[in-house]
């Protein structure tokens, strides 16, 4: 946030701001630091405008800039309600007033400045080029790296499926297969994780999917699978009856059985020798997860039991559903990625490219790491409803707009799922986490480069 001034007198104000920001989090806390950061951006614009000559500004430019500064400060009702902004703004306003008076004095040398419109065009072009560079250096994965990770995951998949077929020949499972971002070319930074889907074959006349709104929890993404028609098909007719708890198919029991059958039983040293890499279960995790090491490369593979019935996909993900025995997670990942691909195919757009850059940005910035690909994909899907220009030339505009849209969702604490509006994708975030993410993104509104420095 340190503003390295090139005009006379700016170093003094930059030192004040640097000191304030360095101590803001300690004195004011996260919310106050966020307000201070937003106010700093507004004052920075004020100083830039104060250093312009009268010929640099159009008649309406001053008014436009003033509204932009006001919108930065007033756009965060969550933070402003905390009442910290009064003290912060008084201190910065005083420093800004003194600085503006200093900058208004005649200077011995006055450089000719380009017009505001030209400067903004140059910044836009620069950001576009920077995004492309960032994609090549930090986001894109080589075909060799992706192919190697996919092959390792498929080799593990073949071994696990063969082992399960031998140990539980009567367990009705469909073909295990690779899924997730590694398969859909949406993985960024490193090919370091994969997902193996284990589809359970359940009889549609014996089991019924209960939407989350109709369960006792009332959460749209937490579904249940109820056993039905017991009067005609008594317990025992379905293989999965043995996994029932209270009349519902237990996701927790399914995971526990697979954990004992696979994680605790397979001979991992022999498998490691056969595949010429180190394969071992990840201990202490609620997920069924394996770690594969081959030289300097590391790959984590999650084994995910799934149910696909009536175009609904449910997954046994205990990291989401917690200690509820009978809760299944309603996954909309396939619908989201399919829709993005369809939209890009229709207009040869760059939604997928923009999503991958945003994913890498969030992965490389600690305050933003909790923003997953699902959050960002939904932001882009919502944005596609309002913006129709997704050509490569519009990449910088769409990137900045996606940041602004994300700030808006954080403001109200709600990001509705594109396919199911009742699902709030931000419901599990704490106020502190939202403040931290909002602070980083607010700073990026004026200086998007701070997101691309990792």
Order of helices and strands: HHHHHHEEEEEEHHEEEEHEHHHHH
Q: SS-based structural class? A: alpha+beta
Gross morphology is globular
Kindly provide the radius of gyration, computed on alpha-carbon positions and rounded to a whole number of angstroms. 27 Å
The whole-number mean of residue pLDDT values reads 81
Number of strands: 11
Beta-strand percentage range: 5-15%
Number of contiguous helices: 14
Low-confidence segments: 1-10, 25-31, 62-96, 107-114, 116-125
Helix content: 40-55%
> Ends: how far apart?
15 Å
What's the topology here?
Layout: H1 10-50, H2 61-74, H3 77-80, H4 85-103, H5 116-139, H6 143-167, E1 177-179, E2 193-199, E3 207-210, E4 222-227, E5 244-245, E6 248-249, H7 251-263, H8 268-275, E7 278-281, E8 288-294, E9 297-309, E10 312-315, H9 318-321, E11 328-330, H10 333-347, H11 351-364, H12 373-384, H13 395-412, H14 431-446
Parallel strand pairs: 2-9
Antiparallel strand pairs: 1-2, 3-4, 4-11, 5-6, 7-8, 8-9, 9-10, 10-11
Helix pairs in contact: 1-2, 1-4, 1-14, 5-11, 10-12, 11-12, 12-13, 13-14
């Amino acid at each position: 946030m340190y503003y390295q001034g090139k005009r006379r007198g700016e170093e003094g104000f930059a030192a004040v701001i640097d000191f304030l920001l360095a101590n803001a989090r300690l004195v004011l806390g996260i919310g106050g630091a966020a307000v201070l950061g937003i106010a700093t951006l507004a004052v920075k614009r004020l100083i830039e405008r104060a250093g312009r000559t009268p010929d640099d500004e159009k008649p309406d430019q001053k008014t436009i800039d003033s509204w932009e500064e006001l919108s930065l400060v007033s756009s965060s009702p969550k933070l402003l309600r905390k009442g910290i902004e009064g003290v912060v703004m008084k201190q910065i306003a005083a420093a800004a007033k003194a600085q503006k008076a200093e900058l208004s004095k005649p200077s011995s040398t006055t450089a000719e400045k380009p017009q505001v419109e030209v400067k903004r065009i140059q910044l836009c072009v620069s950001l576009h080029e920077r995004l492309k560079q960032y994609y090549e250096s930090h986001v894109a994965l080589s075909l060799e790296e992706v192919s190697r990770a996919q092959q390792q995951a498929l080799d593990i998949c073949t071994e696990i499926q063969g082992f399960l077929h031998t140990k539980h020949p009567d367990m009705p499972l469909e073909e295990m297969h690779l899924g997730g971002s590694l398969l859909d070319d949406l993985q960024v930074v490193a090919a370091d994780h994969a997902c193996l889907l284990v589809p359970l074959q359940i009889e549609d006349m014996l089991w019924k999917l209960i939407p989350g709104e109709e369960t006792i929890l009332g959460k749209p993404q937490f579904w249940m699978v109820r056993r039905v028609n017991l009067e005609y098909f008594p317990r025992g007719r379905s293989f999965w009856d043995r996994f029932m708890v209270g009349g519902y198919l237990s996701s927790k029991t399914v995971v526990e059985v697979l954990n004992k059958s696979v994680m605790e039983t397979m001979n991992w040293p022999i498998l490691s020798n056969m595949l010429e890499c180190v394969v071992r279960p990840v201990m202490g995790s609620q997920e069924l997860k394996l770690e594969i090491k081959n030289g300097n490369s590391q790959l984590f593979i999650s084994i995910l039991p799934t149910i696909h019935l009536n175009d609904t996909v449910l997954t046994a993900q205990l990291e989401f559903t917690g200690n509820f025995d009978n809760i299944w997670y309603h996954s909309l990942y396939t619908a989201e990625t399919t829709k993005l691909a369809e939209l890009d195919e229709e207009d040869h757009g760059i939604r997928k490219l923009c999503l991958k850059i945003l994913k890498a940005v969030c992965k490389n910035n600690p305050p933003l790491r909790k923003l997953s690909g699902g959050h960002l994909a939904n932001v882009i899907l919502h944005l596609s409803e309002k913006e129709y220009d997704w050509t490569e030339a519009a990449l910088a505009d769409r990137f900045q707009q996606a940041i602004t849209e994300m700030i808006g969702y954080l403001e109200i604490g709600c990001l509705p799922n594109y396919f199911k509006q009742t699902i709030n994708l931000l419901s599990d975030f704490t106020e502190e986490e939202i403040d931290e993410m909002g602070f980083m993104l607010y700073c990026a509104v004026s200086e998007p480069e701070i997101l691309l420095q990792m």
